[in-house]
């Protein structure tokens, strides 16, 4: 039976959304059969939407970064005029974001996995990072667009590393101290 194109696209989106959460929560060990079973879909049906697990992994990074853009958007919506970057830093390095590995930043959750992944996944990562930086570079100080992009890359990589380390810390007080100190550092460093 052939399904309408809209249904196929909805199913593909459902697979991507679920995979984005599962990869962030469990890393690259997510099995396609288990993922499809969770969605009440067949394992063979996966290949109607994706050529490989690597393709799914790469595209799920983009799905997850889109979720992060919505966190940034919400922070900007609620920011006081002139404090937009501060709001983004505070939202990204929040205790809430730190606790939500499956719904949080894929870079903080998966950088180690991605670095050991196929060239296809790493190329996808490059594309998503460039796109993500385009969305946030205008918030950063700098005299030129290149300088703002460099600052955005440094800030983004530093904050995602901070978040990854904070998630690895078992002691709650130390984890919260790291997040607090990093927020203060980045706000001061970028005059946010």
Structural overview:
This protein is mainly α and 192 residues long. It has a single domain, classed as Tetracycline Repressor, domain 2 (Orthogonal Bundle). The protein is 72% helix and 0% strand. It has 9 helices and no strands. Helix 8 (145-168) packs antiparallel against helix 9.
Helix run count = 9
Order of helices and strands: HHHHHHHHH
pLDDT < 50 stretches: none
Helix residue percentage = over 70%
Instruction: Tell me about the largest β-sheet.
Output: none
The number of domains: 1
CATH architecture: Orthogonal Bundle
Topology record:
Blueprint: H1 5-26, H2 32-38, H3 53-77, H4 84-92, H5 95-99, H6 106-115, H7 119-136, H8 145-168, H9 172-189
Helix pairs in contact: 1-3, 3-4, 3-7, 8-9
Comma- or semicolon-separated keywords:
0% strand, Tetracycline Repressor, domain 2, 9 helices
Summarize the structure.
This protein has 192 residues and is an all-alpha fold. It has nine helices and no strands. The chain is globular, with a radius of gyration of 18 Å.
């Amino acid at each position: 039976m052939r399904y309408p194109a809209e249904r196929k696209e909805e199913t593909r989106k459902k697979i991507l959304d679920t995979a984005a959460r599962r990869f962030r929560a469990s890393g690259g060990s997510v099995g396609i059969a288990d993922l499809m079973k969770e969605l009440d879909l067949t394992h063979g049906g996966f290949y109607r939407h994706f050529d490989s697990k690597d393709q799914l992994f790469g595209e799920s990074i983009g799905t997850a970064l889109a979720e992060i853009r919505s966190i940034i958007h919400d922070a900007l919506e609620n920011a006081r005029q002139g404090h937009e970057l501060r709001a983004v830093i505070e939202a990204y390095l929040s205790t809430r974001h730190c606790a939500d590995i499956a719904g949080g930043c894929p870079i903080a959750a998966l950088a180690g996995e991605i670095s050991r992944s196929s060239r296809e996944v790493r190329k996808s990562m490059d594309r998503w990072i460039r796109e993500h930086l385009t969305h946030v570079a205008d918030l950063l100080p700098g005299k030129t667009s290149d300088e703002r992009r460099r600052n955005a890359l440094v800030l983004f990589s530093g904050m995602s590393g901070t978040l990854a380390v904070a998630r690895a810390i078992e002691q709650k007080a130390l984890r919260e101290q790291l997040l607090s100190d990093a927020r203060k550092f980045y706000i001061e460093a970028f005059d946010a």
